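#onboarding

Welcome to the new folks! Below is a worked example of what a typical request in this channel looks like: someone posts a single protein sequence, and someone else replies with the predicted structure as tokens. Don't worry about understanding the tokens yet, we'll cover that in week two.

Example request:
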Amino acid sequence: MVEPGLSRSPTRTELHAWRTFLTAHARVLRNLEAELLAAHRLSLVSYDVLVQLAEAPERRLRMAELADRVLLSRSGVTRLVDRLERAGLVSRQRVAADGRGVIAELTADGLERLRTAASTHLSGITRHFTAHFTPAELHDLADLCTRLAPDP
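Example response:
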């Protein structure tokens, strides 16, 4: 294992592992996105926003925190929440104690849309990801990925 911050070019084996990881990630996401769009007219990132809000206290988050959770820029999450708000899935309110703060909140329609789409998405995770590994391999994979993205 290489120390973080060490500067060197990756080996052929390391590049192969990197490219394979990227390809697998892209294919799984592409499949999950296509299924959500076809069945529910909901993008994967929109689904993720609904999940993050559903799991948040009172089903609401500050826009900046939502952007961090879904790995979007603040302007990107603003545009996405605009679309979700027009669809009636999310609402926004100003934070009473902070005139500049904005909170996104999951609506009842958003929660229902999420519940409906969840079966498609979760079965897709099984079909496109977990079914390809043993339980021990999934445990190892989770441990390995935690090295790349440790919990804050």
